[in-house]
Amino acid sequence: MSATATTRAPADARARFRTGLRVHTAGWAPGHAQANLISVPADWAYEVLLFCQRNPKPCPVLDVTDAGSWTTPLAPGADLRTDLPGYRIWKHGELVDEPAEVTGRWRDDLVSFLIGCSFTFETALSEAGVPMRHIEQGRNVAMYTTSRPCRPAGRLHGPMVVSMRPVPPQLLSTAIRESALLPDVHGSPVHCGDPAGLGITDLGQPDFGDPVDALPEDIPVFWACGVTLQAAVMSSRPPFAITHAPGQMFITDARDEQYRVA
Amino acid sequence: MSATATTRAPADARARFRTGLRVHTAGWAPGHAQANLISVPADWAYEVLLFCQRNPKPCPVLDVTDAGSWTTPLAPGADLRTDLPGYRIWKHGELVDEPAEVTGRWRDDLVSFLIGCSFTFETALSEAGVPMRHIEQGRNVAMYTTSRPCRPAGRLHGPMVVSMRPVPPQLLSTAIRESALLPDVHGSPVHCGDPAGLGITDLGQPDFGDPVDALPEDIPVFWACGVTLQAAVMSSRPPFAITHAPGQMFITDARDEQYRVA
User: Among A3-12, A115-124, A156-165, B95-104, whose mean pLDDT is lowest?
Assistant: First the structure.
């Protein structure tokens, strides 16, 4: 099914993912904040939190659980082990599985981080008239690993990952302004225009997600992306981690508006 | 001396504090971000960082050092052990000393947190026409412990502390808007008007800093304050901590504008 026209309350969406629906979540539950998930052993929690503090554009922290807990005040009643469409299991930096739920993989020492997601500002951009071409095309957003290193934190290091949306030139200012007002969900773009500025050689070959069809006059606009933490897992090789599958986010009950600064 | 009309570059200000000048820093080095300091043993660092994440209005993190380090990229060449006007030494939650520098008290396991300070937005408010009455009166800003608990993080808990500035009614909207655009330095107020709403019984008796003279029509406006972490130290009693003395901040080289979202 296409997610394009789907409008569902967060709890309804989570219930459908819990019973096995695997989709990317762009366009789902418009107006509600979506989040990246990364769960690491408690021994790595400080470095993940510090990495996020040192790299706030890609890694804005919305919530951190206590060790072992799979609940969050951002979505009362939700279960972080089952309520995302898809997960990734990482061992020593290698992707070893992409299950639909992780109940059997859970550990008492896992600390889970919910990180802001650019899907959250897509509603604001749409309402301001900026077309969301990947949603129109029923695709996951295109994400790219860049040549820009994050500031490391202890053992944790890696490159910044960005999401890209093609924006008509006359709407570039609107897109920048609207996203800047939501700094906790990546805020303003980190780069506009020539992808070479971020070390990206081919927009047609994203590292995560799907390529998107752009109009000739569109400007590629790049926002810092929470998948940066998956790139850090790949680079830094912690013994164990669970993340969301790219584009298959945790949908919270929080309203986008809650993260708007003015 | 009064700090009222003093305008000095950050490095000059830090050099004067390093050689012993003890003043509150409101109005110093206008346009440059000021910061609260708290240094704790590494064993407490995760809980401090998580406390900040869970209480972003009082505790916006600007930088975290590696253990033992007294330097920060926010002010190259500065020494966090000497470059503030005054410090506080805490043992098991008790204030045991207020020295002018802490070189002899430093420990290899101390992790230092620089937390955004409302002095940072005072320049923006002044430029927008909002009077800063405590600066006009040559006083430290008035700070109050509230009845509003912070969200705890592990062993760390305590009440929110606020700073208060009297604002003429016709400028209330301006004060809220200008500070909202600086979310990393406490952002918009947490409360306006009747101090009883925060459990404050007497504005004339601040818990930190000096009382301020207001005009009869002024509205008291309360911003979350980084001294909240000192209140958490008092409540949670870590074995050791170093903080700045209230109102005697670390002046960074960062421009206020760097923290403006739009």
Answer: A3-12
Q: Which of B127, B74, B261 is nearest to B182 (CA)?
A: B261
Reported ipTM: the value is 0.79
The separation between CA A141 and the C-alpha centre of its own chain, rounded to angstroms, equals 10
pLDDT (tens digit per residue) in A103-150: 999 999 999 999 999 888 898 999 999 999 999 999 999 999 999 999
Nearest CA in chain A to B176: A262
In a domain, A1, yes or no: no
Domain total in chain B = 2
Residues B24, B105 share a domain: yes
Whether residue B77 is found in the same domain as residue B127: no
- Closest partner residue to B49 (CB to CB) among A53, A177, A181 is A53
CA distance A128 to B205: 48
Q: B253 with B195, same domain?
A: no
A-B contacts (CB, under 8 Å): 38
User: What's the average model confidence in pLDDT over B257-261?
Assistant: 85
B202 and B73 in a common domain: no
Residue B139: give the domain boundaries. Answer: 121-224
Instruction: Flag whether residue B262 sits within 8 Å of chain A, measured between CB atoms.
Output: yes
List the CATH number of the domain containing A108: 3.30.2040.10
Give Cα separations from A234 to A25, A101, A228 (angstroms): 23, 21, 10
Name B93's Cβ contacts closer than 8 Å, sequence gap at least 6. B233, B234, B235, B236, B237, B238
Q: What is the Cα Rg of chain B in Å?
A: 17
Q: Is residue B67 part of a domain?
A: yes
- The answer as to whether A2 is a domain residue is no
Residue A82 lies in a domain: yes
Determine whether the interchain pair A177/B49 forms a contact, defined as Cβ–Cβ distance below 8 Å: no
